[in-house]
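Lab intake sheet, docking and co-folding queue.

SAMPLE TYPE: protein with bound small molecule
LIGAND NAME: NDP
LIGAND FORMAT: SMILES
REQUESTED OUTPUT: full 3D complex as C-alpha cells
PRIORITY: normal
SUBMITTED BY: R.K., bench team

The fields below were copied directly from the construct record.
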Amino acid sequence: MSGRQRSMSGTIPSMESSHQQLKDNTIIIVLGASGDLAKKKTYPALFGLYRMGFLPKGVKIVGYARTKMDSAEYHKRITSYIKNVEDEEAKTKLEEFKELSTYISGGYEDDASFDNLNKHLVDIEGGFQGNERNRLFYLALPPSVFIPVARNLKVHCYSKAGINRIIVEKPFGKDLESCRELLSSLKQHWSEDETFRIDHYLGKEMVKNLLVLRFANVAMGAAWDKNSISNVQITFKEPFGTEGRGGYFDEFGIIRDILQNHLLQTLSILTMERPVSFAAEDIRDEKVKVLRAIPPIEREDTLLGQYVAANGKPGYLDDDTVPHNSVCPTYAATTLWIHNPRWEGVPFILKAGKALNEAKVEIRIQFKDVTQGIFKDISRNELVLRIQPAEAMYLKLNTKTPGLYTRAIPTEMDLTYKRRFTDIHIPEAYESLILDALKGDHSNFVRDDELDVAWKIFTPILHWIDGKSGPAPKPVQYPYASRGPKELEAFIAKYGYKRSTEGYAWPLTNMASL
Ligand SMILES: NC(=O)C1=CN([C@@H]2O[C@H](COP(=O)(O)OP(=O)(O)OC[C@H]3O[C@@H](n4cnc5c(N)ncnc54)[C@H](OP(=O)(O)O)[C@@H]3O)[C@@H](O)[C@H]2O)C=CC1
Ligand SMILES: O=C1O[C@H](COP(=O)(O)O)[C@@H](O)[C@H](O)[C@H]1O
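RESULT FIELD (auto-filled):
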C-alpha cells in the first residue's frame, strides 16, 4: 500500500508500513546529554523503549555535551529519572542499558570536537555486522546552538552508508521571521525527510486519540461543528512556577512556551477535516489547511497574567534571574476563530498558566443549549478529554433522575483509562515520538509550513506583548497556587461558556443530596 493511501483497521494500525525503519546497525546520539531534557525525558524514554524491546537490535547510545564526565557520572545522571526498576529483570535491563550508553565530551562550534565524536561513532560501528550504518541525532540543546550543531553534524558526523535523521526540539524561533531564518539554516544541511521537529504534545496518548475519536465514530463526527458546539477550551495548568528557569522563560513567556506550539497543535487535530489517509503528509496537509483559516489573534481576545507571591511561594519577579520590572506573562488566555464552513463563529479559547492550583491539561467542548420549551435551565452537554494527569474522556449528559418523578439531572458517561484499560501501559510522549522517528514516520512531528502558519497567528500579539508595536501590556496579577487571574471567569463567559446549572457533582455518588 502506498504511503498516501494508508488506512487504520480496527485492531492493527497500518500506519507503520512504507517508512524506512531503523531496525539494526543504529547509533542514537543525544547532543546536550548533560542537560535537563536529556535527563528527565530523553533517556527515560530511550530506556522505556529498550526495556520493551522497541529499540533497534544491537543499538548503541552516545551522549555528547561540553561537560566533562566519566562513565560513572554519566550513567548516574542519565538514569536519575528512570522509575519502576524494582524487579530483577528491570535491574538487568538497566545494567544493559548503561553498558550500551557511552559519553563523549566536546564543544558545539569547533570542527575538532565533531571529528572526535565521529571517530567514536566509527569505532562503535566497527562492531556492527554488514555495511549499513544508521545514525539518529537528537538535539536536546538550547536553540542558540541548533544551527552550528546541525551544520557540524552534517559536515563531520553524517553517515555515508545508511540513514541519518535529526530530531530537533522547540522553540523553533521567537516569531515568524526568526522561525523562517532558523528553518532555512537547518535546511541547508538536513532535508525535510531527515528532520523530525518534536512537539511532545503530539506524542501524548489522548492527543493521538483525537483522530480515532473523531473519525472512527459517526456519533462524534455528526456533532463536530458550529451547529452543535458553542465553544471549546483547551487548558494547560501547572502547579509550579518558573523557579530555576526564570531567566530562560522571561525571553519566551507562556504563549511561546505552551500556546503557540502544544495547544495550537492540539487545536489543529481537533478541528482539521478528515484526512484522505493516516499517511503523515495527508494528516499534516489537513492541519495546515485549518490553521490557515485562523486569522492573527486580536488584542481584545487576550487575557495576560503574571503570578505573585502567595501561599508561602515566591512570585515570578522574586526570581533573581528575572528582570525586576518584567511584564512577561506567565498566564495567557487567547481566543482563536476559524473562518471555514465547519467552525465559523465558534470561539476556541486556549489557556495556559504556571503556578496555578493544579496540574491538568484538558480539552473541554461545550455543546449548545437544547431548544427550550419542555426544559428550563437545563445543563449543556460537555465532552471533556483529559490529556493529563490520568487520561480520561467523559461526556456530561442530562438524564432522568431515577425514581417516581421526572426531573433531569446532569450526569456523565465516563471513560477513565485506568479503570477501562487495566493491563495497558500508556506510553510516555517521548517514547512514542522517538519510536516514530526510528520508524521514519513524520505523522506526529511538525512540518515546516505548519510552523510558518502557526507563527503568523501568534506573531502580532507577541510583538505587542514584547513592546515592539507600542507600549507592552501589563499582565494582571494572580496569586501563586490560585486558579489564575480573577478576570478569567468574565473572559470565558464573554465567549458564551456557561457553567453547569446547580446540582452537578462529579462523580455523583449520593442521590439523597438531590
Ligand atoms: N527541559 C524540558 O523539560 C524541555 C525542554 N525542551 C527543549 O529542549 C531543549 C533542551 O532543553 P534543556 O535540556 O532544558 O536545556 P539545558 O539548558 O539543560 O541545556 C542542555 C545542555 O546544553 C548545553 N548548554 C546549555 N546552555 C548552553 C549555551 N548557552 N550554549 C551552549 N550549550 C549550552 C549544556 O550542556 P554542556 O554545557 O554540558 O554542553 C546543557 O546541559 C531546548 O530547546 C528546550 O526548549 C522542550 C520541552 C521540554
Ligand atoms: O514544553 C514544555 O512543556 C512542559 C510541560 O510538559 P508536560 O509534558 O509536563 O505537560 C512545560 O513545563 C515547559 O515549560 C515547556 O517548555
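REVIEWER NOTE: Residues 202-434+445-493 form a domain with the Dihydrodipicolinate Reductase; domain 2 fold (CATH 3.30.360.10).
SIGN-OFF: pending second check by T.M.
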